From TrEMBL:
Name of the protein this chain belongs to: Copper transport protein ATOX1
GO molecular function, one term: metal ion binding
Matches recorded under Pfam families: HMA
Any GO CC annotation of this UniProt entry: cytosol
Record-annotated membrane-spanning stretches: none
Keyword annotations from UniProtKB, A to Z: Chaperone, Copper, Copper transport, Ion transport, Metal-binding, Transport
Role summary: Binds and deliver cytosolic copper to the copper ATPase proteins. May be important in cellular antioxidant defense.
Annotated HMA domain residues: 1-59
Lineage: Eukaryota, Metazoa, Chordata, Craniata, Vertebrata
Entry's family note: Belongs to the ATX1 family.
GO biological process, one term: copper ion transport
Source superkingdom: Eukaryota
């Protein structure tokens, strides 16, 4: 799954890393393009809610 997350710095990507590590999913962060790629069996809703815990704007782009 590909998401747009409004990250501006390493601190932002660190927050994303923390919440996703708690879910135990495989993910990749593309900070310059503000994208997060997640490999997971979780529903998109669960992934969005998890990403929103960072306080950032989150948009679901679609399957990668």
């Amino acid at each position: 799954h590909e998401f747009f997350v409004d990250m501006t710095c390493e601190g932002c990507s660190g927050a994303v890393t923390r919440v996703l590590n708690k879910l135990g999913v495989k993910f990749d962060i593309d900070l310059p393009n503000k994208k997060v790629f997640i490999e997971s069996e979780q529903s998109v809703e669960v992934l969005i809610e998890t990403l929103k815990k960072t306080g950032k704007t989150v948009t679901y782009i679609g399957p990668k």
